[in-house]
Design a protein that fits this description.
Layout: E1 10-22, E2 34-46, H1 57-65, E3 70-74, E4 78-82, E5 89-94, E6 97-102, E7 106-109, H2 116-127, E8 133-143, E9 146-153
Parallel strand pairs: 1-3, 3-7
Antiparallel strand pairs: 1-2, 2-8, 4-5, 5-6, 8-9
Amino acid sequence: MEKTRVMENSSIRVVKDISAGHILDDVEKCGRMHGHNYRIEIEIMGEVQSDGMILNFDRVKDVVMQYDHKFIASKKQVISSSGGKLNGTYELLCNHKNYTMRKDEVEVLSADFSSAENFAKEIAYQLNTSKGVRGVTVIVEETPNNKAVFSVMNIGGSDGEPIW
């Protein structure tokens, strides 16, 4: 009798609410400094590790909470940086206006725009690097009617074989 092949999948879900500000360059309505009370929903799929977890919930919360009560800038908006993280400043050019902000009040995305879509992608890739993680989906909700969803799946190891 032939064995049935199965693929098991486990996941964890975390929901966190944060407040943060941003400016979307060259977008009329969102081109002024403004903020959102974001709801961030994360699902992490993966293999349960020897400690009984896919990923520690605290790790997930720490990644999200680094953005709480911060200004979210894009890499394109940073025109200069001085000093260290605690006492330094960023010079930002956002929608044709200059801002100077303390580094401990700013998180810089690796993307060119600080949109909800890029925010979701940034969080997903920060969490996707952990051992045993097969994939991450992040939903960034700006309002109950406006959400951005980003998913990343690990489809193979360095040898090209599926990791599951």
